[in-house]
Specification:
TIM Barrel; about 15% strand; two-stranded antiparallel sheet; 8-stranded parallel β-barrel; 2 domains; about 350 residues
Length: about 350
């Protein structure tokens, strides 16, 4: 596997500012013998994966929300509440909460409750998501795609400040000097619960995150991560223009870690092929080829390989974008739980220390 050229004009990032997390959508998994797990077992496996992530010192785990047969997680905050009871330090977030088809008041209340259960470890990542199933499921029209997210994000950010809210819009009932409960201990102490806006790469979404004064999470799922550098620059420039403090940028990208490059490549490939083949048939794409997959592994945003290979690629991405956080989407398709657990352990114990060393 070719190694990325580790060069950048971005200044070195202090090691104590770097954070490393995990993302999963709860892909319905297979057992080691190739038989399918139930969705219930997949959810229990996600809890076990979060426990291991906490034990190996990772900073965060983020659960995505989907409403389709290939993913088990439709209510990430409920699973995060379960994880809160069996972990100690790891931040518990979403990746993402599909805010367009949610009620921001209930989102705030559920995460304020999670924040209490976890002693201040809750984090919301609000976004639109990459699938549209939640719109018809909850009675929303895709014709309102833009206004739903814009209005609901505006309301959620106001709620996040934990002050009386006065708000009006077209997507839900107005609020007049409304207090919303429970309050978080962080809010009562003058702080804020964790929040990010998930961005797929449109300039409008970048500017929206800056205008709201909320950290930005970049979903980089294909191509050289350096192509997202202009989006990070746009975000930082707008924060400065709006006289906002500099806020962190994080990266979300898929990958898998194994003992060698070859082992990692071959472990994930059949599951990658199955997942993207299914999506391709739904969306009218051509068949997924191994050549395309290897192109992403070798030169794009698939962080697949040995600990050294993955560490080099992550360091390159962080430097390129000026990010301070990297979240590895560690499950791609129906990968067995045993492979995911091994990948998490290698990521936490070998990849992360090596990235810190490269960036120090």
């Amino acid at each position: 596997m070719s190694q990325p050229l580790f060069q950048s004009s971005v200044p070195a990032i202090p090691a104590d500012q770097l954070q490393f997390g995990l993302d999963t959508f709860g892909d319905n998994a297979k057992n080691d013998d190739g038989t399918e797990c139930s969705s219930a077992q997949t959810i229990r496996n996600v809890v076990a994966q979060a426990v291991l992530a906490d034990q190996v010192g990772l900073n965060s785990i983020n659960l995505g929300e989907h409403h389709r047969p290939d993913f088990a997680i439709s209510a990430p905050d409920t699973i995060l509440a379960g994880i809160a009871t069996v972990t100690k330090n790891i931040t518990l977030g979403t990746g993402v909460t599909v805010l367009s088809s949610e009620d921001p008041v209930r989102v705030y209340q559920r995460f304020a409750t999670l924040d209490a259960l976890s002693n201040g470890r809750a984090e919301i990542t609000a976004g639109r998501g990459s699938f549209i199933e939640s719109f018809p499921l909850f009675g929303y029209s895709l014709q309102d795609y833009e206004v739903l997210f814009e209005e609901k994000l505006d309301l959620l950010v106001q709620l996040w400040k934990e002050q009386p809210v006065t708000w009006s819009g077209t997507t839900r009932a107005s609020l007049n000097n409304q207090e919303v409960y429970p309050k978080t201990e962080r809010g009562q102490a003058g702080g804020r619960m964790g929040i990010r806006v998930g961005v797929g790469g449109s300039p409008e979404s970048v500017v929206r995150a800056a205008k709201h004064g909320v950290p930005m999470a970049l979903a980089i799922i294909g191509g050289d991560p350096a192509r997202f550098t202009p989006f990070a620059k746009l975000y930082f420039d707008y924060l400065e223009k709006l006289e906002q403090p500099k806020l962190p940028v994080s990266i979300h990208s898929p990958g898998h870690v194994a003992a060698t490059d070859e082992e990692a490549i071959e472990q994930i490939w059949p599951h990658y092929q199955e997942m993207y083949g299914r999506l391709g048939r739904e969306r009218g794409w051509g068949p997924t080829s191994k050549e395309h997959y290897l192109q992403e592994v070798n030169h794009g945003s698939m962080y697949v390989g040995s600990p050294e290979t993955v560490a080099q690629k992550i360091a390159y991405a962080i430097r390129s974008v000026g990010a301070t956080r990297f979240d590895l989407k560690y499950a791609t398709g129906p990968m067995p739980h045993s492979q995911l657990m091994s990948s998490i352990e290698l990521y936490g114990t070998q990849v992360v220390p090596r990235v810190r060393e490269l960036l120090s």
